[in-house]
Amino acid sequence: MSGKVLSISAYVVLACLLALVPLVRSDYWLGVAFIVAMWVALIQSWSLLSATTGYISLGHAVFYGIGAYVLVVSLDWMPVPFALLLSGAAAGLLALVVGLPVLRVKGPYFVILTFGFAELVKNLVMLIETRLGQFSRLIFDTPSLEELYYAMLALAVIATAMAAWTAHSRFGRGLAAIRENEVAAEAIGVPVTRLKLIAFVASAIIPGMVGGLLVLRTSYFAADQAFDATVSFTIVTTAIVGGLGSMSGPLFGTLFLVILSELLWARFPQAYMMILGALLIVFILFVPQGLSGLLRRGLRRA
Description:
The protein has about 300 residues and is mainly alpha-helical. It has one domain (about 25-295). Helices cover about 80% and strands about 0% of the residues. A two-stranded antiparallel sheet has the order 1-2. Helix 2 (about 25-55) runs parallel beside helix 6 (about 145-165). It is globular, with a radius of gyration of 19 Å.
């Protein structure tokens, strides 16, 4: 219990420190902190389904993108906070509608299906925008960067709290049973279909709101960018590099990703994705527990 209390205390202190970032009065560092909070929120929400059940999704960009699109469309007739809530609700509703057929398959078929579904929705939105004569949309009178940062930090805290609760709840134990042996779990009475669907919907809501906040940050929406498959690949890569199934893994992976992108993206944008792919291979083969696992082993040896 003391270890759990210490871990929670560390996260509370970290959240308080991150809340003080706007006091630095630097748009650059505030922007970096915004990106860190964004990826933590995305990875923690992705982990609700993929890290707990073993259903690795490559389609979370669809929830991120649909949230951005719904927010842009709804800003004309509702305030920003309500539009942001609507973007999360739309992503959750989409996950609910497609969850039952998508979650019937597993393994590599689920990975391929989620990726294909994301591409399908992207092209549908691009078709709708073309028919409307809207190839891109500009957003005016957006909230300040400080306000957007606090909203993104709140989403990161909520996603982390959801992941922590799931890891120590009966719901989470049911998801872990599905990961270990889905057939055996169903045989002993675990409501497999219901648990998977709840996790799928819960993992979609936060990305929908994150997509909405990022559109407000950039003041620009284009369907091909909002539904970019790079988002899904980056989520998976960062989760594996940080350490799957670890509460601290998303934070370590995100910090590593942000440092790497700050060093390489501006200078070598074409090599960035190749480096991410190489990192994914290296960590899967040689460091399966990720950076958080390396840290735990180092602390035990010390």
